Amino acid sequence: MELFQYLPEVLSGWNLVILIVGTVVGLLLGATPGLSPTMAVALLIPFTFQMDTSSGLILLGVIYTATVAGGAVTAILVNIPGSPANIATMLDGHPMAKSGRATEALHYCFISSGIGGVIGVLVLIFFTPLLADFALGFGPSELFWIAILGITVIGSLGGTTVLKGLLAGAVGIWISLIGFNPVAGTERFMFTDHLQGGVTIIPALIGLFAIPQVFQMVEDARRGRGGKTFGMEHRPLWASIVYNLSRVRALGIGSVVGVLVGLIPGAGGQIAGLIAYDQNKKFSRNPEAYGKGEPDGVIASETSNSSMVGASLVPMLSLGIPGSPTAAVLLGGLLIQGLFPGPDLFTQHASVAWTFMGALLVSQVLMMVFGLYISRFSRYVIQIPKQHMAAAVAILAVFGTYSVQNSTSDVIIMMTMGCAMYFAMRFGFGPGPVVLGIILGPIAETNLLQGQMLGQAMDGTFQYFFTGGVNLLLIFLCVLSIGYSVAAEFKVRARQRRQSTGRTVEVES
Amino acid sequence: MNNKRLLQDKTLLAGIVTGAMLAVSGSALADYPSNPINVIVSYSAGGATDFQARIATSKSETYFGEPMVIVNRPGAGGQVGWNYLVQNSRDEGYDIAAYNVPHFIAQSLMYDTHYDIDNLEPIANWGVDPAVLIVGRDSPFDTIDDLVEYARENPGRVTVSGAGLFVGHHIATVQLENEAGIELKYLPTDGGVDALRFVQGGQVMAGFNNLSDAYRSQDRVKILGIADLERDEEFLPDVPTFKEAGYDIDDSSVNYRGLMTRSGVSEERLKILSEGAVEMFNDEEVQAQLKAGGSPMRVMGREELKEMWQERQAYLEELFASLDPEELEELAEED
Amino acid sequence: MMSHRKHRFTALATLLMAMGLAAASFMPNLPGYEFPQMTALVAVGIAAIMVLLAWVPKQPVTAADEEPIPWGGIWPLILILAGFLWVMEWLGFFATSYIAFFLIILIYSPQRISLRGAIKGAVITGLFLGVLYLIFVALLRVQVPQGILI
What we know:
The structure holds three protein chains of three kinds. By secondary structure, chain A is an all-alpha fold.
């Protein structure tokens, strides 16, 4: 097995130093609100110029791994996800923290990340050639249905009602269509020049989640609730490990969904966490506990978004197709080193490729160890007075948005969307569906338009989208997902009605 | 407090520097460049243009004394980044962009863009990437003739992918349609890598793609022809040109990549940039790295490029004029 | 009863907004707008259902999910954020951030504004931005908007 042949190289001298420093730096960058994994990887690419090929790649790989996991820390403690991958973690992680289980949530987050991450990398190591063909099987029709399936997740994204969630999702999709038509290249909805580049995911994510939180924090500070709102409980690590390992269903669903979503090129690996969360909730015997601090939600989401990292490198390394914005930046770093995706990578550059994959495996373990260690320092983070936290988050949000593309327009978009979201949240709309819409809108449109063109050349558009095993399976899953959400909504409403009529009767009598 | 004094010092310094700049401007600036130079890449990170630009500019500190920083501004086949260059950047020579000919010229003719060859200045060219006709590994087509014959029998049913509307691949498709008298269905995608994926996965029957990308994925695709004047002896000596196969298709779809800036930058600075960039692209290490990626090189300076741009513009105007307006409308409307 | 009326108001406002999106999508009457049109129509449809449900008597459409906007507390922040965007490119990122950070912690401090508090705030602001500058600009060479200051 080549892996063991190159493992000593991974763990020797400089490479080990890079792994450890990279893990710690990545965790810290990921845990800083407003700084995204995409930005972190992009920032470090120039540093890899001076390194030899394998060290440079190890640095980028380890930063990718660690920032995705680090993003969960802010999601749990401050209610701001570090990357789209952490949105689902936030849904239950933050409620857990507020009810005094912050340490526990952080434990689950890093343990699950480590388990999922290792599974993802193992898939990458053992099944890459096999799965490359699987990844290529996804054409416009399949990707379109995957986008629709992603949209059906909205029903379980927290928020108050499915209707408001769906509406927010539709608005999110509409916002993502600002800019240029992806196929015809014509301008759309360009009300000002600032909108030329469209609304991209990172400014949207930072704005929609961080800015409302800034408003919330200053409001708390003004009301004198500026101190810490929750403490970090003491919890033995082994208890968390035992419980975490016993949640087999959450771990299983998380890693399977993460690997599948990561493999599909262009499906936006970023939604892996959300889909896994949704599936786990639907299989749960107690779906109402989700969104109120259910450990399974954190476990499923984190397993999924970490196993996605390794799997998303399968199409990237074998075909050159990145599955997420961060993977795209990573691919850039790979190409600069003179390493080109494809089978050559594993034959001509075997030593680099295997060292890289070995390093990814090791970095998952290091991430788990250091993450658990660093999470102990979270108690200092939550002691920061709210007004200081608010100011820092606001500044970092601007900084993190600007530095992705050096674009002032992005900063303006981020602020505008953030303020609008704050007001919309007062009326019961949540930011999660909007971000989901922004991620999935372009995927759905591009593939719909391309599918239509292909369908016209073949046997007709309808047939193109509604025949074929994978299409039918995906459509079936969409219908199932929608049906489940509707049924759940009726159940909840029926119970509310019973309760409220009960109350009215009491008042009248 | 300490910080505030620092800020004041900075203002003072800034004042002095501005004053000095005003005093020196007009005379030859020996100290240009004195800041990092921003290079806008109009495609997303990881694409062929992006990584070639990164390699080509990687030796900037040796040749200019300052680094070149890549900023990706993807969108609309490049329009977003190039619009940004002419609209938002300053004319001090610190904002430059990577160009793709014929993409940006074709777009300036077909769309309402803010840029055209009159408000852009070429700096230097590093690479040429001819369009090649590819089909999937399991495709029944083995030669260009096979494909043309099938397309003749099944008009409009042969799907061809390429990296977007009005890029080199699209032009090559149109040329092949005109020359062979066939009707193809062109599918624009987000970029070369995506277009290649459609061919590899069998979603389309054929595709035009960059030689460099196709060269690296020969295990999954067959390369049928190259749209250039001569065969590529170095990378694909066995692949015939379209001319050899009997289709009179010239090199006008060849994808030139290089650096440009907006007009208004002083002639001295353009000269510094152009001469430095030519030397930088000729650097042995840069050349070796680009070759490893299968990108044919052709380094050209400012004067040569000006001519080439004009030539392409004239040719494209002619080509688009020869397309009947209905067909063009259909292209723009295609969905 | 009050909240009932508010629900109806929200539903109506939502419908108006969705119709605005639809209008923006259908107005240009050019090719390339089909998908936005579909999206906007879906949004209008959902909003219409919300309005209908809001008029069903005596049944709250949603749980109590609407909160009043605390205008009194947030308007300074809105001004600071808007001012930030306004000034940033002219003054430079770090100078603007300094002012914004300082103002936020001063205004929203639970204690009364005092000279000591202000000095302490200025030092904290300086420390935070100093660390940010050292790590990202000096070490990692991130570019930030530069104006007449830094």
